[in-house]
Predict the structure.
Amino acid sequence: MSRDVTSSPLRRLGLALRGLRLDAGLTGQQLADRTALSQSTVSRIELGQAMPSLSDIEGWGKATGAPAGQLAEIRALAEAAAVEAISWRRAERRGLPALQQDVADLEATAATLLNFQPVIVPGLLQTAEYARRVVLSGYPGGRSDIGAAVASRMERQEILYDEAKRLEFVIAEAALRWRIGPPPMMLAQLDRIASLATLANVSIGVIPQAAEVTAWHIHGFAILDDRAGGSPVVRVETLTTGLSVTGPGDVERYRQAFTLLRESAMFGDEAQQLIRSLITSMRQPGERALSGAPAVAGY
């Protein structure tokens, strides 16, 4: 899933509203206290992760004493953001396989892919059953095209075997421990990760739960770099939408975050040992993983 947020209307709207708050000398909590919004909603709006209503914008303008002209510009941004949201919903109606193909087309343009995931196995490393459960989790009521979406995701994985590409994955140990299915399915998934890590052009690192991580790691992201005829893109997926971030400054911040996260990860033999310890602990419930990290209940 992806949509271009190179200065997207929703992101620009959030930044503009944040500017009003800062100009008024208010904290996020103070603004929330003066409006009908919660502090967390204020934060999500400013980050471009939530769409404010027109009444929210009016309240924001009143709380910050925004000039009429500036507030009119923000209303225009809100209208553009609303149009963008409608466009995304229309794109989703094309079907999940089509959205997977959009991602595949984007990945095909990059010679280097850097992927960080804190709570889920990256899509390019997923087994078919793991992928099916991940896609289904986003649509609890079910969809008729989930099977086709999984098939499309499996086709995307052909990029792993392209020696002209360099793919690097940094995965939190928690993502490997998070059970989204029964032990046999998880065992197959862990075994696949261990196998793919042997590919010459694929590097897989695991951040142990016991590691002290000071780098930013709130959500997963993928950096598509060294793109043929294009600038780097950072893909971020949420429950309802996908973002493609291309602003040079934003891309560089993600690149710096990935570098720091990589420094906290185990690679090579150490990563393989950690993965194998998780496999052992899953096959023998109650045993402690060899990594020294506390065993998750039921492992």
